[in-house]
Amino acid sequence: MDQNRTSRRSFLALAGATPLVATVLASCGGSNGPGQASSDEASNWILTGQPKEGIRQGAVDDWNEAHSDQKIVTSAFQNDAYKAKIKTAIGAGQAPTIIFGWGGGTLRNYAESGLVDDLTPWLQENPEVKERLFDAAFAAGTVEDKVYGLPTETVQPLVLFYNKKLFEQVGAQPPATWDELMALVPVFNAAGIAPISLGGQSRWTNMMWLELLFDRIGGPELFESIYNGTPAWTDPAAIDALTKVQDLVKADGFIKGFASITADSNADQALLYTDKAAMMLHGTWTYGGMKTDGGDFVSSGNLGYMNFPAVTGGKGDPMNTFGNPAQYVSISSKATQAQKDIALAFFKDGLLQEKEAEAYINEAGEVPIVKGIDAKFAGLEDEEWLKFTYDLATNAPSFAQSWDQALSPTEAETLLDNIEKLFGLAITPQQFAENMNAAIGS
Amino acid sequence: MSTSVRTAPSSVPAKVPAAAHTSTGRLGWLVLPALIIFVAFAVVPLIGVFVLSFTSWDGIGAISFTGLTSWTAVLTDPGLPHALWVTFLVIVLSWIAQTPLSILLGVFISGHQKYRALLAVLFFLPLLLSAAAVSIAYKALLDPNFGLGPGLNLGFLTQDWLGRPALAMGVVIFIIAWQWIPFHSLIYQGAIRQIPVSMYEASQLDGAGRVRQFFSITLPQLKNTMITSSTLMIVGSLTTFDLIFVLTQGGPNDATRVLALDMYLTGFRANQMGLASAIAVILVVVGLILAQLLQRIGGKDRNSQLEGA
């Protein structure tokens, strides 16, 4: 009786523990299913979200039609889900042939572990591929002078969007300086309009504010020194930027409830085009979405845009910007030679060709990283916007890469975690700086 | 496991003929399929996780053994006691929210009143939905700008539900309860139906009212069921992950960062598999302790509470 009871009990206990282990297991495995191409087909994972999802798919479809013996299979994933999935897939040796990403620290991680192929020799054999793309786009795809990520798609600087109708309603001008921006906060709040829309639950959205404040106050060299390992988060300029952001939060500058709004659902954009919020700092990639979803908001000229305001007395050039210099495609070192050959052939003759580039201009309102592309803007519906983006990206004395992409994934996660707490007023600027200094090099 | 089966007949009442002993003894192989799956998918990964907790691994590169580094880092991280506390809150609050309602609903759907079957089906619906789908739906409903409250112009529903720590925790508890109460009601319904009607009839003769019957017959008779249901609830709450992951990602300000989520974020967001494995081991240990504890509470009085048994 006793023995029986004990064993039954321990079995139950073990049974109770099974779900735990199952969770661990479930999160470890599972990159099978869609996207697993047979060994003579290359696989390619793309991001969802129209209109760009259709453009990416269109380029692959055109390729497959013309090259029935070199097929590429695609699977589409949502942005945040993709970032988690690709990491797991690569770690498990189940990566797609073509690895899409944003370069920077994550790509460095892959390159150092020998998981992606060095594209430098291929680029030397095919100089025409490199020559037609923006030179500045290659930096974030390069690790120790070797190109591991071929830049593609579009250049995406950060822009301060604003709702012209709401600015007219309160009789205000777009802010040229940080002080003007702060002065606008009570004006909009008094009119029952949220001054700034923010999808705070996504965290990297909050980060954009810090990136530009760091740049305007301390200049691009402030974050560069942090990137290179100097514990400069406690620098007076950094503390000033962190304090300014908290001042904006405390003044109710961001919409009420921003901590529960996500950017993946585009709710932050919706706040701007439904006249609930007056301003939004975001990447140029949101333009296409607002044009598609916002009714006549964009076409009737209600969407205003400008570079981030200057900070009086700051060291940074107000022409500087942040964002994604490009997106990047790499080749998995685990792919078969046949798959690699298909992918390279696609990179050369299928990716970002004229039709795809023009689709980015016409449908998404983004600037592809193809030299001389500005010649195609003339007469287009979005001509003014495209020219603005092109000039912003090409004339910026410094176009820095988003922090969470530039840093290693571990350091980036600590950063995003602390940014959420900074915006939630759970920690002081000083605590933020100390936490981040402690995480440098992790 | 097979030994337990062989000794099992000793607990069977003596009236079973002796021949049965030897014949059940040969049925030990019946446990094999379950055992193989259990070892392959539970014991082996568990050992793997334990080994990984002594390493440092970013999930993609080489694994290097670093001794107790991960353990020191996890145990000195103020995030661990916080995650344990949040997990404890989820367990306790979920139990408090779910148990009384499940019992009452169970009593209701075990009766024979009009429309009972229809209502029982309606109550059962939330259980059929996946946690991710439920979270996405609630997230949309609770949106402070485009959700149910602003849509219907209801001020009290227009809150920053997922943006304020206490509210977010409340929402998480509510949704867990909303989804799991039907399941526990079902367990209670079955148990209540097993209570002999004669007990109620006897008490009626003694002049007991409905409330008295509930507290003096129904509740005591449900003791073993309560332990089963509580075990499922507690272990379930301990490992709640999907719902919180989709709903709040552990925010705001880590207010809903339970241990299981902490493990995931450490491993798959921050690429620190060593640390995540150490957290996983802690999670397993906590789970085992809780399960043992509950078994011990229930173990004192294992005999059936049924009349005449």
What does this entry show, briefly?
The complex is a heterodimer of chains A (442) and B (309). With 442 residues, chain A is α+β, with helices and mostly antiparallel strands. Chain A has helices at residues 2-28, 52-66, 79-91, 104-112, 120-125, 127-131, 164-170, 178-190, 204-218, 220-227, 236-250, 267-273, 286-293, 337-349, 354-364, 383-395, 403-406, 409-423, 429-439, and strands at residues 42-47, 72-77, 98-101, 142-143, 146-147, 150-152, 154-163, 194-196, 277-283, 303-306, 321-324, 327-331, 367-368, 399-401.
Helical fraction of chain B equals 55-70%
Return the string of H and E elements of chain B.
Answer: HHHEEHHHHHHHHHHHH
Largest sheet of chain A: 7 strands, mixed
CATH topology of the largest domain in chain A: D-Maltodextrin-Binding Protein, domain 2
CATH class of chain B: Mainly Alpha
The tally of structural domains of chain B comes to 1
Mean model confidence by pLDDT of chain A: 84
Q: Taking Cα atoms only, what radius of gyration of chain A do you get, to the nearest Å?
A: 24 Å
- Count of folded domains of chain A: 2
The poorly predicted ranges of chain B are 1-22
Secondary structure category of chain B: mainly alpha
Q: CATH H level of chain B: which superfamily?
A: MetI-like
Count of β-strands of chain B? 2
- Identify the quaternary structure here: heterodimer
| Widest sheet: strand ordering of chain B | 1-2
Q: Which residue ranges of chain A are poorly predicted, with pLDDT under 50 across at least 5 consecutive positions?
A: 1-35
DSSP helical segment count of chain B: 15
Q: For the record, give the distance between the C-alpha atoms at the N and C termini of chain A, rounded to a whole number.
A: 55 Å
Overall pLDDT level of chain B: 83
Could you explain how this protein is built, in words?
The complex is a heterodimer of chains A (442) and B (309). Chain A is built from 19 helices and 14 strands. Chain A has 442 residues and is α+β, with helices and mostly antiparallel strands. Chain A folds into 2 domains: 158 residues, D-Maltodextrin-Binding Protein, domain 2; 205 residues, D-Maltodextrin-Binding Protein, domain 2 (3-Layer(aba) Sandwich), CATH 3.40.190.10. In chain A, helix 2 runs antiparallel to helix 15, helix 9 packs across helix 11 and helix 18 packs antiparallel against helix 19. The radius of gyration of chain A is 24 Å and the shape is globular. Chain B is mainly alpha-helical and 309 residues long. Chain B has one domain: MetI-like (MetI-like fold), CATH 1.10.3720.10. Chain B is built from 15 helices and 2 strands. Chains A and B meet through helix 1, helix 3, helix 4, helix 12 and helix 18 of A and helix 1, helix 3, helix 12, helix 14 and helix 15 of B.
